[in-house]
Fold each of these.
Amino acid sequence: MICYRFATYATPLRTVPAALPARYSRGDEDEPTQYLALHPLGPLAELMRNADLRSPDQVRAVQTRTWALEVPLDDLPEIGFDTADQLDISAEDLVADDRSACQQLAAELRGQVPGIVVPSAALPATRNVVLFGPRVAAPYLTEPVSALDIPASITAEHARPLFSLLDIVRFVGDPHPALEAWQQGVSFSFVEPEWALTRERRTETRTQRIPYT
């Protein structure tokens, strides 16, 4: 399955743990945790949510690398709103601003499974992939020689999100539309943001007309 990630380093994958906590890692683990998205817009949505980028000016300043990775998902259990309680976590916890329940779940699953597929907190109705343990990026069109090798390639340099992504990112403090729909027993589908460049150009034009002071 093709997954997506942003990373400004020379590689999109880690062999050593990160010191900063994230949704499924506390920052004190002995192994790294890899975060990927199953929707191409997922990584930039996560970036916008985590950095609280809520305005076109903030989005315009983003310059990051985006990556595509081919990741086998057959051995990764999927944890969704319907199945969360089977693992002693609530559906709400999977996308909550408080990440402690997700961190606890990851601590229990490490060593048992190579990773999990979970709902995205930032881009409702899409899914993320969390891999436990080190992984190494390999050239995209090569056959992996071990389970640690992940075919990967850069898809863009100095990339930034579309302005229209501002309309659908679920920021900290906001309700999660997919969770709310599930709680009400109705379906919720992801709708692609506007692809047209009209909004991009209109925003750029307005900015250019602002005089310097």
Note: Residues 207 and 213 are 14 Å apart (CA to CA).
Amino acid sequence: MRIEVFRDVFQLARVFTISRGSRSEARVLSVKLSDGEYVGWGECVPYARYDETLESVEAQIAGLPDRFDRSELLGLLPAGAARNAVDCALWDLEAKRAGRRVWDLAGLPVPGPEITAYTLSLDTPDAMRAQAEANAHRPLLKIKLGTADDMARLEAVRAGAPGAKIIVDANEGWSSETYAALAPHLVRLGVALVEQPLPAGEDEALIEMERPVPVCADESCHDLSSLAGLRGKYDVVNIKLDKTGGLTEALRLRDAALAEGYGIMVGCMVGSSLAMAPATLLAQGAMVTDLDGPLLLAEDRDTPLKFDDAGVHPPEAALWG
């Protein structure tokens, strides 16, 4: 089996800012697996928060043997971006060999569209209100926050989109004191979910705190092994393929999390439709779907995912799976 890795750059429609910084483009790695007859594709987004770079992920993939399957891959690479791209490419390759869709191979129901969140970048309150007004027609907005003075931003977004469902992502940017002060206002403003309010290494404080709005683990939840450390702190887990290391582990994590009573959020890094395509299978019936990566881009794959009033649709075979 031949593995090729390509660096692709997609320009963003506008500068995207979270509490850790800003970007104007999405730099991704595309993986191509070929057996001489069929080709499978996958995409990953190396993430500096997890000490990943384009170079480090390329090196991990380059170290793989010539022959392996998806079950063996779980032991060859750790959870993360490299394993994600290869795992998803293997699923795509298997589907093409079998002449079937991935959901059939995985024993999953035929997927349909899911309403996805649309993310508003961190900015001044006035700028965020303008973003909210421009996107007030969308049913679900996700607000990037994570500073000590976020109250004005919350108020501004709610004023700009009074009818939208809102979720908040602090990206580890709050202290326990900031979160405690904001929590009653999250309820007042109709926020439906707050994502990773505290740093992953400091989230023990959540055990002793009231959670009037469901709290979702993102940076604190990577793969199946993460679940044991979330008990008593979180109500929802955000499953991202670039954290789990692919669809194979993500399905295992979803099933285990549901069995333990967690709600499921399916999220993404900022990547193209190829990165989102496998996650649309995972998102079926999720409490929150957050697969808006392609909506934030100024350009996308040749066969992009379809987004409409019904949400994000599963991929055409020409894209993936």
Note: The first strand starts at residue 2 and ends at 18.
Amino acid sequence: MPQFIQELLAAKELFGVPFFNFAVLAFMVLLAIYLVFSILRLILRILYASLHGHVGTVVSTADGDTFKVKVIQIFSKRGSKRGLSVRLIGLDTPESVKSPNKDIMPFGKEASDYTKKRLIGKWIILHHDVDTIDQYGRDLCYAYLFWTGEFYNATLIKKGYAWAYKYAPNVKHAEKFEALHQKAKAAKRGLWALYEARNILTAEYKKTAAYKKFQEKNPSTQKKQ
């Protein structure tokens, strides 16, 4: 062991302060500096996210690709007490809720449950592309988990919970999404065990007991399949 380390360990005082007390003091100072920088980084991150989109917590989900966010309204006045309605850009998940224009689809519940499990109560950062609002008043967004930076739009496609769906002019990440789409399809991951293309079920799946059970549970659905 180097001589200076031996002398340091043998010392009872350091700069006139008992060695143990000095070590504790040094630790507390370093901890305080770390906490100050962490808080500053958090504040700057929130400010940056607010300037370039929205930041907030997910309060509810309507579908695998649609949810509401309680926005931190620093620079943005978007949203209400019930939350900002968000529709993810560049993808489409099977429908989990029947509407006048759409029927419930196989794997819709799985996609919806996944988003609910992953996002409810989580802080996220939202960014827009060219068009920011759709015809239903929902914000069209790319979503990133606040603490990890995970690109949630990409995650849904990569794990087989959504199809890549290119819709101009919001095509900033279209090539990335299409590549993930093809990889998930090749691996028959998630919805690709049931579908051969967006909204088109495979002939094999239509012959299964699972599909028959789905039709019995949702008798008005899948007429176009």
Note: The CA atoms of residues 87 and 117 lie 17 Å apart.
